[in-house]
Specification:
The chain is mainly α. Helices cover 75% and strands 0% of the residues.
Amino acid sequence: MAFDLNKYISVEIPLFFMFVNFLLTNTLFTNLIVYRTCYIILGYNKTACAELGNDNVNIVDKNQTEALDKLVVPTADIITMVKTTVESLFPVFVCMVAGPWSDKHGRKPVLLMSLIGLTVGSALVVIFSIFDSINPWYFLIASIPPMVTGGVTTYYAATLSYLTDVSTDETRGLRMACYEGALACGVLIGSIASPYIFDATNYETVFAIGCACMLISLAYMIFFIPESLNTNKSNENSSSSSVGTEDRKLIQLQNFKDMVITTFKNRGEHKRTLLLIAILSTAILGFLTTGDTGIQYLFFTERFDWNFKMYSLYNSFYYIFWIIGTMGGTYFLHKLLKIRDTILTLVGLVSYMISYIIMVIARNNYLIYSAGVVRCLGGLVLPMLRSHISRIVPADEMGKIFAVLVGGTALISLGASPLYTMVYNATIDTNSSLYNLVSICLIGIVMVFTIIMMCLEPRQTYSLVGADSERSLLTEDLGQPQINAEM
């Protein structure tokens, strides 16, 4: 019998290479925008501008560089803010229409569409970085392909729907954890490699390596990822009619209406409430992650005098334990011991809470690293919430629900950076670690939501070992029709 790799891992591989690219290039892209803004837009000396972000300058030059940095960064921040807004806002609406469309016509076209846009955008960055006279505003052109094809937001939603299609109730939690693990591995490798590759080469080489990672993702998706839905029958039924042709159009108001109706329709046995709480909890955690990530580097440099390499080392340490906690915790606690999704969600939230409390009181590097270790089980939270959602929603509605989940999270996360920045700036002169109290409050809210979910969910065993009738009863209890995931 031939070994079927897609039974165990599939869309996680393109996701891994995608995040290697992101972590290789994101910080350096910001540095390049600052550098180009300095000598092209503001007209400062090119040699002096090249020292911005350099940790190896002497004390005199460092003071001059810091003064120049304060003059350049506000203008560069406007460019990066416009880029972030463009790449975050419009793809949400693409995601909202692509999700319902994929329920009828398949996940792979949506996955390919978003990957092509991201790859073309990455290639444009390489081209613009080669010519050192190009104004940094022109780099926004590279944001257009991912913007119109849905970008990362649409790719996330389609990936989560795909994983739900190809997994069973028994394996779904583990597959969601593999998704988180692949993402974390990409972050780990990209963050470790980025400063060293840049020190040995230059901007365009790093961006070219990142673009190569995107090409690998795209090629793997084209040649090795099969469609997860059987769309042949629906295509045969619709191909002979103009209605069918109209139905295959991506941009339709009806798709958006269907998504809203599906999200809020009554499902009985508190399932609508459980679904909405799980979606809201995921969105809050996405908001937290966006805000915390944006401030964390500033906090470490201000409080502990870290540089970029020290921060990359910490990130590597943190993600190693995150991967171990996510994969090991899911396998042993969820797959082997059959502990419920909501209980593991609460365990992960407690891990988060303790970690952020340590961050508030931290006065040395040891406590910061301890907080990273304690947070290792935090990786259980999102996979368990997504697994819980997939148990409530039938397969033909997954695209709509995950479009709401990912798109809604991306939309509200636009407010995360302003909120965290405001709190950080307000406390920086007294105790800069107090910004972590925002995360503690948000984790507390999600913990309350999780306890409510535990009280409302049907009282059933999660053990699938036993008679077929017991398995059937469990599936019916969760409102999930039985699906043969070995297809």
